[in-house]
Design a protein that fits this description.
One of its GO terms (molecular function) is acyltransferase activity, transferring groups other than amino-acyl groups. InterPro entries: Acyl_CoA_acyltransferase, GNAT_dom, N-acetyltransferase. It comes from Psychromarinibacter sediminicola. This is GNAT family N-acetyltransferase. This protein is α+β, with helices and mostly antiparallel strands. The protein has a single domain, classed as 3-Layer(aba) Sandwich (Aminopeptidase). It is built from five helices and eight strands. The chain has helices at 26-33, 49-66, 112-125, 142-150, 179-182; strands spanning 11-12, 16-19, 71-75, 81-88, 97-102, 132-137, 154-155, 169-174. The strands form two sheets. Strands 1-2-3-4-5 form a five-stranded antiparallel β-sheet, with helices on both faces. The radius of gyration is 17 Å and the shape is globular. The protein starts with 10 loop residues before the first strand and ends in an 8-residue tail after the last helix.
Length: 190
C-alpha cells in the first residue's frame, strides 16, 4: 500500500492558529453547516449530518488535489475551532477564491475572521504565488461583504461566477504592490 503525503501548513496570528482540518472539528463543522448560518456555503437547516461530513471531507481533500485549501481557524487561547478560512479553487469555478466562515455567532464581532483572512491573503499572495483572488459572497451576507471591503477587496461585477451562482457578488483581492512594482521596475511590466 502506498499513500500520498500532503503538506498543509499552519499559519499563526496574534490570536489564532489556522491549521489542517481534523476529525475532531467535524462536530463544530456539522453544527455550522446544518444551521441557518450554513446557507451561505451550500448548507442550511435541511443539510443532513452525512452531507455535512461529505462537505468536510471535500474541503479536506482539496489540499491533496490543489495544494491549497480551507484551514480550520482556532483560537490560540482555547484551541476551539471557530471557523474556516482559506485559499481554494474548486474544479468548476472560474477563479481562485479566498473563502471564510464564522461557525457560530458567538465568535462574530471580535475581528477573528479579518485576522484569519489577512493571514490567508499573505499566504496566497506569498508562498502560493497568486496575483489575484476573489471572494464569492451571497448578496444578503452583509457581514461577509463588510469583511471583504475591510480587507480592501473591491466589487467586480464583470467577474465570472461559479455555475449556478447567478446572484452572487464577487469581490476582488489584489496582491500587494512589491517594491519593484512601486518603483516601476521591469518586473511590474512582465
Amino acid at each position: 500500500m502506498s499513500g500520498t503525503a500532503v503538506h498543509i501548513p499552519t499559519l499563526h496570528t496574534e490570536r489564532l492558529i489556522l491549521r489542517a482540518p481534523e476529525p475532531r472539528d467535524c462536530p463544530a463543522w456539522e453544527a455550522f453547516l446544518c444551521s441557518d448560518r450554513g446557507r451561505f456555503v451550500g448548507g442550511g437547516p435541511e443539510t443532513t449530518p452525512g452531507r455535512a461530513w461529505r462537505a468536510f471531507a471535500s474541503i479536506t481533500g482539496h489540499w491533496a488535489l490543489r495544494g491549497c485549501g480551507i484551514f480550520v481557524v482556532t483560537r490560540r487561547d482555547t484551541g476551539a475551532p471557530i471557523g474556516s478560512c482559506g485559499p481554494w479553487f474548486p474544479g468548476d469555478w472560474p477563479e481562485r477564491e479566498i473563502a471564510w466562515s464564522v461557525w457560530d455567532a458567538a465568535h462574530e464581532g471580535h475581528g477573528y475572521m479579518a485576522e484569519a483572512a489577512r493571514a490567508v491573503l499573505a499566504h496566497a499572495f506569498g508562498p502560493l504565488g497568486w496575483d489575484t483572488a476573489v471572494s464569492y459572497i451571497a448578496p444578503d451576507n452583509a457581514r461577509s461583504r463588510a469583511l471583504a471591503e475591510r480587507l480592501g477587496a473591491i466589487p467586480d461585477p464583470d467577474a465570472a461566477l461559479p455555475p449556478g451562482d447567478g446572484d452572487t457578488l464577487v469581490f476582488r483581492h489584489r496582491a500587494p504592490e512589491t517594491d519593484s512594482d512601486a518603483a516601476g521596475g521591469m518586473e511590474a511590466y512582465a
